[in-house]
Amino acid sequence: MTTVEQRVAELKLDGLCCSQIVAQIVGLEAQDKENEELIKAMGGFRYGMYSQYTCGSLAGGIAALCLYDFDPEDCAEACKELGEWFEQTFDGITCCDLLGPGGSPTDVCRQSMIQTAEKCLEILEDYDLITENIFA
Prior knowledge:
This protein has eight helices and no strands. By secondary structure, it is mainly alpha-helical. The chain has helices spanning 4-13, 18-28, 36-42, 46-52, 56-65, 72-90, 95-99, 107-126.
């Protein structure tokens, strides 16, 4: 069985960025779906929208959660939970927070992808939107 960490490494080798990788794993693969256009569009969130703004791992996670059949209030709560967890875990939510001004992607980026995907899958299990984590 493939783990989230292994899948992140594979998708990185395929040239995908943080936002694309989290959206691919959580939003599509966990639902056995494909959507090339979504993954292409998620590339716009790379490196914090190319400006070190909101981390692409977080943006990919939020987008992925919204692909599920949540009640609107539950979706808002799930997204809020992810955002709060991310900020607490990584001491901020922007690429600048994680990497410093002008910083280049490092291991913290890899860890943010892995941990964000795992947290999203945990949230989806908590809301009974996935019954089996295919990456566990």
